[in-house]
Amino acid sequence: MMKTISQGKIFLSDQRGVVENKNLRRYCSFNFEAFNNPAKEAVGSLYALHDDLLAPNASLGFYTQEKGYIIVLPITGTVNYFDEKENETDIEVGECLMVFAEKNSFIKLKNPYYDDLISYLFIGIKDGETQPFSPHFFNVDLSEVNQLKPVNHNTFPFQLNLGHFHARGECKYALNQQSLSYLFVLSGAFEVEGRLLHERDGIALWDTAEIEIEALSHNAVILMIALAI
Fold first, then answer.
1. CA 96 to each of CA 29, 68, 123, 142, 227: distance values in angstroms, whole numbers, following the listed order
2. By C-alpha distance, which of 104, 57, 94, 55 is closest to 72?
3. Most exposed among 13, 213, 219, 225, judged by the fewest C-beta atoms under 10 Å?
4. Dihedral angle over CA of 182, 132, 101, 116, nearest 10
């Protein structure tokens, strides 16, 4: 029996918005600040997915756009985190920080290195339920290949997963059909539900009970966020 093609929308890497100043180069998957494109509207409660490069010893201070969760996932280098509740901590590569914040809460991210750029993913997910404003740390385990591994536990209103794949490695991920998912390629190339995705491409999928993923290159890494509708 032929598999029904799931409904989806691709967000290509080279069509992302770019915000740039002397301290920051930010690639935005969705509309942000001056970047506004009708085809780049947010995906459900996922309102931000930024791919950031922060200059040596530079800081980025901002007020949150929405009530909900902020997620910081270092790609290269340590990220120093500080917020208005005086939470201050370092986020290392191999760790993920998730924090609930009210709208217009102040947060600052800093590059602690004097000579090196750092890169990280910044993710924003809306949530109407108020939670304590305190950081949660999770370890990112990419040691097992060809599968999506959950990062956070199931008390959150979303599930963050990461997978490290060898070439031609495959997996299937079961979903509640009332959920919406967004996948983002961190490195390599993948075929996701019959669609070809290259590095830093993303895809939103909905109305599907299962996602089929196949890596097309070695040491390919993909992020998947499952969101309740």
1. 20, 16, 11, 13, 18
2. 94
3. 219
4. -80
